[in-house]
Amino acid sequence: xxxxxxxxxxxxxxxxxxxxxxxxxxxxxxxxxxxxxxxxxxxxxxxxxxxxxxxxxxxxxxxxxxxxxxxxxxxxxxxxxxxxxxxxxxxxxxxxxxxxxxxxxxxxxxxxxxxxxxxxxxxxxxxxxxxxxxxxxxxxxxxxxxxxxxxxxxxxxxxxxxxxxxxxxxxxxxxxxxxxxxxxxxxxxxxxxxxxxxxxxxxxxxxxxxxxxxxxxxxxxxxxxxxxxxxxxxxxxxxxxxxxxxxxxxxxxxxxxxxxxxxxxxxxxxxxxxxxxxxxxxxxxxxxxxxxxxxxxxxxxxxxxxxxxxxxxxxxxxxxxxxxxx
Length: 326
Known about the structure:
Elements: E1 5-8, H1 12-18, E2 23-26, H2 32-37, E3 45-48, E4 58-61, E5 65-69, H3 74-79, H4 81-86, H5 88-95, H6 100-105, H7 108-112, H8 162-168, E6 172-177, E7 180-185, H9 186-189, E8 208-214, E9 221-228, E10 239-248, E11 251-260, E12 267-268, H10 270-276, H11 283-293, H12 306-322
Parallel strand pairs: 1-3, 2-3
Antiparallel strand pairs: 4-5, 5-8, 6-7, 6-8, 9-10, 10-11, 11-12
């Protein structure tokens, strides 16, 4: 590991001043330290964002919804009584992220901005397309965990469990840079390889995530988060589904389905939402919505199993959220 300067940033403005092409933000550090030790990055400076206590908060009001400072830890999000009461699916998603020790350190902002876990990207001896190289080794290599949707010259899957859950609750993200502050829907924050093959989001090297905000769920809202992983602890998702349904009896007024670990970005399923909206939820409707969610899937040589697995997970999440027996 190359020597680096470590500087505290007590304000967002100071962090912006200290950042640049040869600097990296550090908060919980659960992903950044891995990249340093793996030789994937060698910054000249680490900017410690945890010195900025103004970014560590969790606030809720019925009129404004939930507001999360970027430095809120996953443990704080998981155990907060307000979150469990009003956004139970979000708390459930956080509960299956990594281990309690990691959740104690990891932050909301860091989880959303973490880098891919693709084993070719994580190999410092391989200069793949995600690192600006000429080839995605997964195309002709071991790709059982790679993308079945949205791939384009790079077939990573986005590693965040938090992102699909937040997007299903219509979250917005606020971040700041030299040009001021911006707020946009969280789904627009992430970028696929067709837009920028070396990045997962819109953040520039001198920009800082400050807040995630969620509206108060409408009456009758129910949510379910389901995750498939090889091991029951510590593991990243092989597949995940966040489902939020606004129910009026057995009829769905509005639906929001977001898939994880199927694409280079958290993957909304608007076609599935359309099938569900205005429909009485039955096993047949859930099956049609699941088929719609995976429409356009293009599996690779070793991950065709992810298509039926994802369909079944979407179907189960819908039925569970609606309180309907399979």
